[in-house]
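Retro notes, item 3 of 5
We never archived the inputs for the magnesium ion complex last cycle. Fixing that now. Sequence and ligand:
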Amino acid sequence: MGTDAIIEVRDLTAGYGGEPVLRDLTLDVARGRVTTIVGGSGCGKSTLLKCVVGLLRPWSGTVRVAGLDLFAMDEDERDRALSRVGLLFQQGAMLNSVSVADNVALPLREHTSLPPAVVREVVRLKLELVGLAHAGDLLPSELSGGMRKRAALARAMALDPDLLLCDEPSAGLDPQTAADLDRLILRLKDTFRMTVVVVTHEIASIETIADDVVMLAPGGRLVFQGTLAEARAGAIPEVADFFARRTPDAPASTRPLLDFLAAGGRDHPTEART
Ligand SMILES: Nc1ncnc2c1ncn2[C@@H]1O[C@H](COP(=O)(O)OP(=O)(O)OP(=O)(O)O)[C@@H](O)[C@H]1O
Ligand SMILES: [Mg+2]
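Structure as it came back at the time:
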């Protein structure tokens, strides 16, 4: 790994008190690619993102973003560094008391001294980008779930980030809307040459957007990091199981089909590993 990593996590241990949530985690996120972070509920995926955006200080170890150790700088420096990072929170986290347009304008007003007319224009462009040009005057509560996710994405994109972090962007969306959101994320990545990190449980989504995969296990342990192809190759049982959606007690008769699917449907079922 090394030089083209935009996120470098080294020996990271972090938590909220009591037992650590992340344990001795070391991983890289490569610049210009889409990395999906997978792993069971509660294994620390959102916690990892919090460390990456400086919201949670590591107990030990380091997190570098674009070569900068966010916790070794003062607050102003950190704010500046983080203005290059867009975050789409798991809960959307839009301010409900102000319009969608004002939500998108928020980071611009906070981090730039652009005149109001320019802010308005940037907001218009960002909303157009996510297909919400008509929705700027609405309140977040007046949007559908998919629209709210896209509005949050527009806000995360407000400052043209080099790095976009999305925590379960398609959770709670119907498959079509989720697929649309995936395509949008890919388009944003290609158009703006962004690095994108997406926490997701959706295998269809991973297959569509992922270049790389990071898998965490309960206890905040790293199970796997590598390319999507390597993940699908199934050398590590936990990763293979995830891609096969195989439960430990799956009947033997379903195994060949599951292995076939785990292999990305490329190998003949009868030749697949059991
Ligand atoms: N603010 C907090 N205070 C205390 N404990 C927390 C806090 N946020 C998360 N935790 C705990 O940390 C652990 C990991 O939570 P985290 O949200 O990182 O998991 P996750 O992998 O994102 O799960 P999910 O897939 O359900 O979103 C959980 O045990 C959770 O209870
Ligand atoms: Mg989470």
